Amino acid sequence: MENSQVAAVFDQIADILEIQGENPFRIRSYRNAARSVGDLSERIADYVAAGKDPEDLPGIGESLAGKIGEILSTGTCRTLEDLRKKLPPHLPDLLKVKGLGPRKVKALWDKLNITSLAELKSAAAAGRIRDLEGMGEKTEQNILKGLATLEAEAGRTGIRQATEHAASIRRHLEGIKAIRRLEPAGSFRRRRETVGDLDFLVIASDRAKAADGILRYESIEDVLARGEEKVSARLASGVQVDFRFVEDEEFGAAWMYFTGSKAHNIVLRKRAQKDGLKLNEYGLFRGEERIAGRSEEEVFKALGLPWIPPELREDRGEVDAAERGQLPQLIEREDIRGDLHAHTNATDGANTLEEMVAAAQARGYEYLAITDHSKAVTVARGLNEAALRKQADRVRAYGEKLKGFWLLAGVEVDILKDGKLDLQEKVLAELDWVCASVHSAMELPEDRMTQRLVAAIRSGVVHCIGHPFGRLIGKRDAIRFDPEKVFAACKESGVCLEINSYPDRLDLPDVHCKRACEVGLTMVVSTDSHKIADLDLVEYGIGVARRGWLEKKDVLNTLSASALRKRLKRK
DNA sequence: GCCGTTTTCGGCCCGACTGTTTTCAGTCG
Questions:
Q1: Mind listing the pLDDT tens digit for each residue in A443-477?
Q2: How far is the CA of A29 from the C1' of B13 (A)?
């Protein structure tokens, strides 16, 4: 039972209660509980099994703690099953359509007997929705658009695509004279691995002209809203972009508000309230008087807090940490001194050894580990013992010619189904850097997967576990293992965990990163480069590391080449 | 349903935009 499954039960309960028009605060409790469990790095099943009390988790009281126990043992809970009997099974799906909330869904069901997305589509297409009270032709059109979007986008946009869109939008907006300042906000600014939409804050000398300019952006397919305060559009790619107009004196408060997360904002607002203040997107107010708002620093300061980096604003303890003066000094891109996961054309990389080295040097790195695949990865023409030895000789020979740069002879060796490594340990022991990864048999049951990873970690020849969860965002689920046991084995054997920067992976995920750090593990921010341009993906890995509360000292490849050499010395 | 440095009961974050209405409900973030 995964945390996401427990969270899903609570979210489903909340959905049904909403359609039923239940007490909104009760509904919020279920939503909060879903988030609380979903954000937990430890598995809730293990947490409970270890005898810890779910009531210690934020937003979990006696009732929800009982339901967690019930869900863990039965996969569902009585409350959900009883609620389900009161509605058609697919009715809550309608809530996913943008523009449809619980009240409209209820009306569609009551008045038109619509119980599924398919029925909604045919009713809207047939023009039957416009006759309902409170709905008109526009509503009907928006439902059809919402359905189309739902079918097309299938979820959120990856960070890489979002970054590319943001850069392109910035280039367009820089040419508009009426715009004085533009800053990204939302989950994009918090560097989440996927974003729902892109948010920008705009200071304009003339809002009407600025809006005209924005809407001339060539990739806009559909204008969703245009008001005094905001312009909202959908791009041809399906991504929604919101632009909010703000004034100088409210910019900081607005930036905080639109950066979120929502949960973080609520914590700050409650805190303001306690001091007799009011915090909204226009500023921090005492009565009618705005006491802060121009910059984020000013607002945080007026709340008695230091500035909190956006990556931490998830209501995962950052406000408390800020209050105690214990915010981490987050790692920066510039702290990275080398890359420890790179492929060449010896296996499935696109570039030669020499090209990869030149690219690493051009980025100011002091070292690079060549980690081609081992033989089990046949599709990548993985290396056997003899081929690897030959490559290592070549790597070392070339490395000796390089001044002030350490070229590590390494490998990305497969962890086989039984936990053995894909190459003889004596060959692996000759290398400077051994990254071990799972690429096959990803469906193993949890206990066997845990044993498999622990066996590899305890081999004594492995430095790092590559992309530990093996997930591909939006495409393939994570492999299942007990993180606490695996982390404990890493701690015992001095093995690092990789934060793979590849945008599809971003693995170790942020919450596990935070947990691994608490356990005292060292992470490696690597790119898994398959071509020279991939070396720049490290930016995304840094985003994950920062979201995982990591400091420079928690990441191995912030060490200088000489310090790393000492650290990696084979016994 | 949760929670408590005024409270174990009575609160629970806050505002904009749309579409449908003639003053507002629903939705969104």
A1: 888 899 999 999 999 999 999 999 999 988 876 77
A2: 14
* Helices A3-19, A62-74: inter-axial angle, 10-degree rounding: 120
Check pLDDT > 80 for residue A199.
Answer: yes
**What backbone phi and psi angles, to 5 degrees, belong to A468?**
-55, -35
Tell me the CA–C1' distance in angstroms for A88 and B2: 29
Inside any domain, residue A250? no
> Do A317 and A447 fall into the same domain?
no
pLDDT of residue A155: 57
A79 CB less than 7 Å from any atom of strand B? yes
Give the Cβ contact number of residue A385 at 10 Å: 15
Residue recorded with tokens 């990548």? A380
Task: Work out if A207's Cβ lies within 7 angstroms of strand B.
Answer: no
Residue A61 phi, psi (nearest 5): -110, -160
**What is the DSSP track for A359-371?**
HHHHTT-SEEEE-
**pLDDT for res A378:** 82
Provide, in whole angstroms, the distance separating residue A301's CA from nucleotide B14's C1': 21
Half-sphere exposure for A94 (CA within 13 Å, toward CB): 31
Q: What is the pLDDT of residue A99?
A: 83
Which residue is associated with the tokens 């009551």? A110
**A566 conformational bin, left if phi > 0, alpha if psi -120 to 50, beta if neither:** alpha
How many domains is chain A built from?
4
Distance A116 CA to B7 C1' (A): 45
| Claim to verify: residue A81 and residue A103 sit in the same structural domain | yes
In a domain, A328, yes or no: no
CA separation for the pair A190, A186 (Å, rounded) = 7
Rounded distance, CA A260 to CA A49, Å? 34
Q: Are residues A456 and A471 in the same domain?
A: yes
Check if the beta carbon of residue A540 is closer than 8 Å to that of residue A509.
no
Tell me the two tokens of residue A70.
Answer: 């019930």
| Residue A518 backbone dihedrals phi, psi, to 5 degrees | -60, -35
Does at least one atom of strand B sit less than 7 Å from the CB of A96?
Answer: no
Closest Cα to residue A501, out of A463, A551, A535? A535
